[in-house]
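W.,

You were right to be curious about this one. When I first looked at the sequence I had no strong expectations either way, so I just let the prediction run and decided to look at it fresh. Below is the sequence, 565 residues in total, followed by the output.
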Amino acid sequence: MASISFNRKRTKLKQLLGIRARLALLALILVAPLMLERARSLEDARSREIAAASAEFFNLANRAADAQREIISSVETVLKSTAYIRASAGGMTRSCDILRASLPLTLPWIGNVLIVGHDGLVQCSARNTSVGLDLSDRAYFKEAQSARDFVFSDFVVAKSIGKPAIIAAYPVASINDQIDSIIVATIDLAWMSKMMSKLGGRPGITAVLVDNKGTVLATPADEASLVGRPLESMPQMSSIADMAFKSGQDEGSLSFIGPDGAKRDVSFAHIAGTGSRLIVSIDESKVTAAINRDIRTAYAQLGFVCLFVLLGALIAAEKLIIQPIGIMTSTALRFGQGDWSARAARSRLPAEFVPLARAFNAMASQLMQRERELVETNDRLTVMASIDMVSGLANRRGFQNRLDFEWMKAQQYDSALSLLMIDVDHFKLYNDTYGHPEGDACLSRLGETLSSLAAETMGFAGRYGGEEFCLLLPNTAAARAVEIGETLRQAVHGLAMPHRTSSHQHVTVSIGVACLTPNTALRPGDLIEAADAALYAAKHCGRNAVVEHGFLRITDSPGGVAMAS
């Protein structure tokens, strides 16, 4: 079964790899280098564009981070200066006057500077607002009192300006431990967002400044709606921020696959002195959308070129190869089916096929002549294979073929079919007495006699084997078959061929006769078996007798009939 399955698969593979498929494959092989080179150049351009975009935006991200650091640094400077004023000016009134006079107007990101007492109440405001405001509940105020160092809050809505901000606090006690005031500055997030403007308006680029709790502090103008929102509400940005926070580094870059399946390159930087980080994410699929469109267009163009080449190759192959092969194949099939006059028409073939057509026509002529000779030889061999050379009658094979034919014919016309089985009496003794050459001569004479009788009775005679002969009588009833058998017995007896070891002193034959009307319930072998049984009965009755299957007729006592089974 395995070999059969393998042969079937091999046949299917040969069909798939026909000449059309091979020509198409050849065309693809010719076009493939162009396709691959074009695809390689486009992919290289894509890689270069990704690398250039990544480098550009990482540089912008670093500049934005530096700008944020400068803001924080400037705030620290203002807080320290104010703390020094408070520590050295003496009273609160004088400190407040100096503060309002010395606050730089070139730092618009500082919303307000406050001097807050140890009880959390605002004692002085650079903007002449918020005096008396209670900040004692603010975490950054408590942390500044306990840490005695710079403190930057996470995202808050500043009480002093009523806007989203981050708060910087610095205790005066860091300079003069006799004074327990806290200097507080509000940093306007809108100005921090302006510092990120160059990172906005770019497809595939996301930039955010987030605090230690993951709340967005600043973004480019096109993403301003994200300010104040927690990253948990933005799954993609949340996963990006998690990667940045978990890295454990102050700044760096990394690549990963986001929840949406897109590859992202991330650059992050920690803003010194605060818990915030600037995070810039590049979505490669969006950054390279234009080059990807170009690549798809180029592939489509290459596809059309390949299709055009394939169609051209197939059309050319059909005209120049397939059709001529079809003509040659059709001519060969006609010739193979016995049309000896089939010849390839050279006028319908391309010049390359003319020598093949000429050779085919010459071969066809030779094959036709050889076929004729072979038919004649086969006819002679068929005759020789069906003839017994000793008796000149049909041999057993020839007889069996004729019996099958006459059986079907008799069954078709519902006619009787009779068979005589004939055996030479004591033929072994004849051979032992006279020798085999004489035995063959005896069989030859018997064959001549039987052949003459077959011609007279429209029968078919044959040598069944050894000294046994048969005579097939189509459309002959049992009674007539018995008469013919008796005629044959007498004819052999009349030859008077001496046989001194026989009780009759000359050659005699025993004959069994059987007659059947063939039908679907019977077979040719039944007729042979019946005739054999009658022949056995004839031998049992003393030989030189004709016995019909079912009755015994002894030639020495005409009219004598006995049952034979």
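Here's what jumped out at me. The two ends are 51 Å apart (CA to CA). And, maybe more interesting for your project: The longest strand covers residues 164-171.

Coffee later to discuss?

I.
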